[in-house]
Specification:
The complex is a heterodimer of chains A (609) and B (229). Chain A is an alpha+beta fold and 609 residues long. Chain A contains 23 helices and 17 strands. Chain A starts with 10 loop residues before the first strand and ends in an 8-residue tail after the last helix. By secondary structure, chain B is α+β, with helices and mostly antiparallel strands. Chain B folds into 2 domains: 153 residues, Alpha-Beta Plaits (2-Layer Sandwich), CATH 3.30.70; 69 residues, Alpha-Beta Plaits, CATH 3.30.70. The N terminus of chain B is likely disordered. The chains are: A alpha+beta (609), B alpha+beta (229). The complex binds iron/sulfur cluster (SF4) (3 copies). One iron/sulfur cluster (SF4) binds next to helix 2 and strand 5 of chain B.
C-alpha cells in the first residue's frame, strides 16, 4: 500500500508496448518526497528499473519515462516543462566492461504536455517494451489505448503535428512525437511537441526503438494539495512577481522582446559563442543573425508555454528570398541559431531558418546535428574526408545548400549519413583522425556556448551527467539548483538568478502543495541527491574521472579573432578546478566516485552494494 | 453550470452601471492593430454590451486565462468556506485553441445581442421572471442556464455553433450547457490576470468581421494574414 502524498496522485501509468499491457501503479511516498518529480523522480524510477549496468539503451528493457513535476498544471508562472528520462543512446565511456555502457539521459521541453499528463491523472508515464508495428498512445484520463500509427510512419514532425490533431478530432489533446530521425534510430533524435519544442539528447531514438510514433494526452483532473489557502496566495504572489516594476518584469521583458536571441550579440562580444566548430568565440557577422535581424525578417508573434509570462519563443515566417513562405516555428533561438549558423559559418538568416526547420521536421537534436556538420566541414577542409566520401556534397564553411543535404543524409542514414548519425565521437574514431576537434564530452556533442574564454562552462560540460550539457551549471551549488528546478516542472528561465523566482519562493510553493516543510537549503539538497544518484548510475556503467574531460581543442586552439583573441584553457588549471569540484562534491578525487559518507548523508546507501 | 455567486471585488458593481445593452467582439491583426479600441466604455454604440475583447497582436497562447477562469469559477469547499479552485483549464469558460502555423485563439462567449442560444431554447418563458431555461442575467448581461428547468436538449449548443462562436458544450453527465462565460459576476478574472494584457472587457466600437466566428475560422484568417499562406 502506498500512502497518498498531497499534490500527487501517487500514480504512474505503466505501458508495456511488447505485451500491450497498461497498468496504473503506485509510487512510494518516500521517493516522491526525496526526488519530487521530473528529472529527479525519473532518475529514481530508472535506477529501480535498471538493475545492472550495460543494458542496451535501444532494448525493450530500457524505459522511456515522461514526467511532469509537482508544480505542473497549477497556475504558477512557467510551469510548462516535461522531463523525459531514459538510458542514453548517445554516450559512452572511454573504457568499460559493458558493451552498451552509457549515461542517464534526461531532457526537458516546454509547452503544454507535462501539465496535461498531470490533468490526465498521472505523476508520470513509464513506457517499456517494443511494439511490433508503429503505434501511438492515446490517453484521455483513465482511458488509455495503444493505436496503430503505420499511416504516420515516415512523416515529418510539422506535417504530423497538423494532421494528427485533426485525426484525433479534439484540439484539447496535447501531443508529442518523433520524426523520421527517431524512426531511423539516429542516436541524437529528439521528441518534438508543437512542431518545434524539443526534448533532445537522444530520447527520441529510444522512442523510435519502441516503434512509438506519438503520445496524445488530455485530462480534466488536478490532485488535492496540502494547503489550498496558502497555495492560492503563493501562486498569486508568484504571478505578481512578474508584474509592475519588479525584477521579474525586467526578466520577462528581456525574453518577450528577443527570446534567447538576445544572447547572440552578447555572447559573440564576450567570445563565448561556438563559431567554426568551436575554433572561435566571436562571429563577425553576428549582426546579420541577431534578434534585430530576425525581428525584421522573420518574427510574427510571441508564443509562450503554459502559464508563462516570458514567452521566449518567436513564431514567424520567412518573408522573402528563396525560402519565402517557410514557417518559422521557433527561432532562431540562441542554441539552434548558433549551432546551425555561426558554428557552420553561415550568416544568411533565411538559410539558418531553413536548416532549423528541417532539423525540427526530421526530429533531430539540433545541437548535435550542427556540431556534427561543423566537424565534417572542418574534416573536409583539412582533407581528412573528400567529396566522394560525402556523396558529392561540397561541404564548405558557410554552405547552406550543402548543410541542408547533410541534415537529410543524417536523418536517412544514407551514405556518409550512416556514420555522421552516430555523432562526432564515433566519426573521429572511424576516420582515425580529428579526435582533437571532435567536440563532445562522454560522446554527447557540445552546445553553442564556447569554452576557451569561458572556462567555467568547461566545468558545466565536463561534469554533466548526460554528457556535454550547457545547462548543467558551472558550480556545485548551481548544479544542485538546476537539478532541483528540472525536477519541479518549472522552467529555468523563470528561476534564473538574480532576476527570477528565488529558491525560497519555490520552497514555499512546494510546501503548500505537498505539506512538507523544507527550507531553501533543504530543497537544494534534493537537487544534490538527484545529481549524486545520476552520478552513481553513470559510475556503475564505467564512467570515471577520465570521462569528465574536455576536447583537446579547448586546450590547444586559441581564438584568433575578437576581444578574447588568444584565449585558451590551461590544462593544469582545469585539473585543479576539477579536483576542487570533486572535493566540494564529496567525491573521490581519483576515481570521481561519490564517497560513502556523502551517499549516506543523502540517503543513497542503496547505491553502493 | 451556474457558478456566478462569489464576489471578489466590490468595485465591480460600480463598473456594471456603465454597461449598456447589445454585444459582439473585436479582433486585431498581429503587428500593428488595424482597429483601436476606444478607452472609454461609453464611446461604443449605444446598443452594445461590453464583452471580452481579444487583442491577437498580444495574445501568446499562455492559457493563464483558462487556468484562472477555471479556478475562479470552480470554487472548492475548504474548511467550510468556498475558495477558488486550483484551475484545470478543462473546466474553463474561455478556451484557448492552438494551431499550426502557430496561432492561438482564445474563444469565449460573444454575448450576442440577439442571443441565438436563448432563442433556440424550447422551454417556455416563466410568467413571473420572463425567463427560459437559458436567459440573460439582467445585472451582468451574461447568458445563464437554469439547471432546474433545462431539459438538456442541446438546442442552444446547436444554435451557438451555427450562428456564433460555438462555445457551448454539453455536460457529459447531465447534458446541460456548459462553458458559457458568466463574466465572473461582472469582474472578468481572465481579463485581470492575462499576463500580456491581451484581453479587455469593453464595449466594442466597431463591427469586425471576426465577430461570432469559430476558433477554426478565426485561425484560418489569421494564418492567411500572418503567415502568407
Ligand atoms: S492569458 Fe492572455 S495571452 Fe495568455 S492565452 Fe489568455 S488571452 Fe492569450
Ligand atoms: S452562448 Fe453562443 S450564441 Fe449564446 S450569446 Fe454566447 S456566443 Fe452567442
Ligand atoms: S469573464 Fe470570468 S467566466 Fe468569463 S471567461 Fe473570463 S474568467 Fe471565465
Amino acid at each position: 500500500m502506498t500512502i497518498k502524498q498531497s499534490g500527487y496522485y501517487n500514480a504512474l501509468l505503466h505501458i508495456n508496448l511488447t505485451t500491450g499491457k497498461i497498468t496504473k501503479k503506485g509510487i512510494c511516498a518516500e521517493d516522491i518526497k526525496d526526488y519530487v518529480g521530473g528529472r529527479g523522480l525519473g532518475m529514481k524510477l530508472l535506477w529501480d528499473h535498471i538493475k545492472q549496468p550495460g543494458i542496451n539503451p535501444l532494448s525493450e528493457e530500457n524505459p522511456l519515462i515522461f514526467l511532469p513535476g509537482p508544480f505542473s498544471g497549477f497556475p504558477i508562472p512557467s510551469v510548462s516543462r516535461t522531463c523525459v528520462v531514459t538510458k542514453s543512446p548517445c554516450t559512452s565511456p572511454i573504457q568499460s566492461n559493458y558493451p552498451h555502457a552509457s549515461t542517464v539521459s534526461y531532457s526537458n521541453f516546454g509547452g503544454f504536455f507535462g501539465p496535461e499528463i498531470k490533468f490526465a491523472g498521472y505523476d508520470g508515464i513509464f513506457i517499456t517494451g517494443k511494439s511490433p508495428t508503429p503505434v501511438f498512445i492515446q490517453i484521455n484520463n483513465d482511458n488509455v489505448e495503444i493505436k496503430d500509427a503505420s499511416n504516420y510512419w515516415g512523416m515529418g514532425t510539422d506535417k504530423f503535428d497538423k494532421i494528427f490533431i485533426q485525426d484525433l478530432s479534439d484540439r484539447r489533446y496535447r501531443t508529442c512525437y518523433i520524426g523520421p530521425a527517431g524512426e531511423n534510430l539516429v542516436p541524437y533524435a529528439s521528441i518534438i511537441h508543437t512542431a518545434s519544442r524539443a526534448a533532445g539528447r537522444g530520447v527520441g531514438c529510444v522512442m523510435g526503438s519502441k516503434n512509438l510514433k506519438a503520445i496524445a494526452v488530455k485530462g480534466s483532473k488536478l490532485p488535492d494539495v496540502a494547503d489550498h489557502n496558502m497555495l492560492v496566495k503563493k501562486m498569486t504572489g508568484a504571478r505578481n512577481y512578474f508584474k509592475g516594476f519588479s525584477r521579474g518584469k525586467i526578466l520577462s521583458n528581456i525574453f518577450r522582446k528577443n527570446g534567447t536571441a538576445f544572447l547572440f550579440e552578447k555572447k559573440s562580444k564576450k567570445g563565448q559563442m561556438s563559431v567554426k566548430n568551436f575554433q572561435e568565440g566571436t562571429f563577425p557577422q553576428v549582426d546579420r543573425i541577431n534578434a534585430d535581424a530576425a525581428r525584421n525578417k522573420l518574427w510574427v508573434r510571441n508564443y509562450s508555454c503554459y502559464c508563462c509570462p516570458l514567452s521566449c519563443k518567436k513564431s514567424g515566417v520567412i518573408k522573402q528570398g528563396k525560402y519565402k513562405g517557410l514557417l518559422v516555428h521557433d527561432g532562431p533561438e540562441y542554441e539552434t541559431g548558433t549551432m546551425l549558423g555561426a558554428n557552420l559559418m553561415i550568416s544568411e538568416l533565411e538559410g539558418i531558418m531553413k536548416l532549423i526547420y528541417d532539423g525540427d521536421d526530421y526530429g533531430l537534436d539540433i545541437i548535435s546535428a550542427g556540431n556534427v556538420i561543423g566537424f565534417l566541414m572542418e574534416a573536409y577542409e583539412k582533407g581528412i574526408i573528400d567529396k566522394d566520401d560525402l556523396g558529392g556534397i561540397d561541404l564548405t564553411w558557410g554552405n547552406v545548400e550543402a548543410s541542408i543535404k547533410m541534415l537529410e543524409k543524417i536523418c536517412s542514414k544514407e551514405g556518409i549519413g550512416a556514420l555522421a548519425s552516430q555523432g562526432v565521437k564515433a566519426l573521429s574514431k572511424k576516420l582515425e583522425s580529428g579526435s582533437d576537434f571532435a567536440m563532445h564530452v562522454k560522446g554527447l556533442e557540445i552546445a553553442a556556448h564556447n569554452v576557451q574564454a569561458n572556462p567555467e562552462k568547461g566545468i558545466s560540460y565536463s561534469t554533466s551527467n548526460r554528457g556535454a550539457c550547457h545547462q548543467n551549471g558551472e558550480t556545485v551549488k548551481k548544479q544542485n539548483s538546476i537539478t532541483l528546478i528540472d525536477s519541479l516542472g518549472i522552467c529555468k528561465f523563470a528561476c534564473t538568478t538574480p532576476l527570477g523566482l528565488s529558491t525560497k519562493k519555490l520552497a514555499g510553493l512546494l510546501e503548500s502543495i505537498t505539506g512538507i516543510k523544507r527550507s531553501a537549503d533543504e530543497l537544494l539538497m534534493v537537487g544534490e541527491r538527484i545529481f549524486n544518484l545520476e552520478k552513481m548510475f553513470n559510475y556503475r556503467e564505467g564512467f570515471g574521472r577520465q570521462d569528465d574531460n574536455l576536447p583537446e581543442r579547448f586546450f590547444n586552439d586559441a581564438f584568433t579573432i575578437g576581444t578574447e583573441k588568444g584565449a585558451v584553457l590551461d590544462r593544469d588549471e582545469f585539473d585543479t578546478v576539477l579536483l576542487k569540484y570533486y572535493q566540494e562534491r564529496g567525491w573521490d578525487t581519483k576515481s570521481s566516485k561519490p564517497e560513502k559518507s556523502k551517499l549516506a548523508q543523502l540517503g543513497l546507501e542503496f547505491t553502493y552494494s | 453550470m451556474y457558478r456566478n455567486k462569489r464576489h471578489f471585488n466590490k468595485e465591480r458593481r460600480h463598473f456594471i452601471k456603465k454597461i449598456a445593452i447589445g454585444s459582439s467582439a473585436i479582433l486585431f491583426s498581429f503587428g500593428l492593430p488595424i482597429f483601436s479600441i476606444s478607452s472609454s466604455a461609453e464611446d461604443g454604440k449605444p446598443d452594445q454590451l461590453a464583452s471580452i475583447l481579444i487583442d491577437f497582436s498580444k495574445c501568446t497562447g499562455c492559457r493563464t486565462c483558462e487556468a484562472i477562469c477555471s479556478s475562479f469559477n470552480n470554487l472548492e469547499n475548504i474548511d467550510e468556506s468556498l475558495m477558488p479552485g486550483i484551475g484545470n483549464p478543462y473546466h474553463a469558460n474561455i478556451k484557448v485553441y492552438n494551431y499550426n502555423p502557430d496561432i492561438d485563439v482564445p474563444s469565449v462567449c460573444s454575448l450576442c445581442s440577439d442571443a441565438p442560444c436563448i432563442q433556440a431554447c424550447p422551454i417556455s418563458e416563466d410568467p413571473v421572471t420572463n425567463r427560459k431555461a437559458l436567459f440573460r442575467d439582467n445585472k451582468t448581461n451574461a447568458i445563464v442556464s437554469d439547471p432546474t428547468r433545462c431539459i438538456g436538449c442541446g438546442n442552444c449548443q446547436e444554435a451557438c455553433k451555427n450562428e456564433s462562436s460555438g462555445i457551448i458544450r454539453l455536460n457529459r453527465a447531465t447534458g446541460m450547457p456548459e462553458g458559457i462565460c458568466n463574466l465572473c459576476g461582472g469582474d472578468p478574472q481572465c481579463v485581470k490576470h492575462c499576463p500580456y494584457g491581451a484581453l479587455r472587457f469593453e464595449k466594442q466600437t466597431i463591427n469586425y468581421s471576426f465577430d461570432r466566428m469559430s476558433p477554426d475560422e478565426i485561425a484560418k484568417q489569421l494564418t492567411k494574414q500572418n503567415y502568407l499562406i
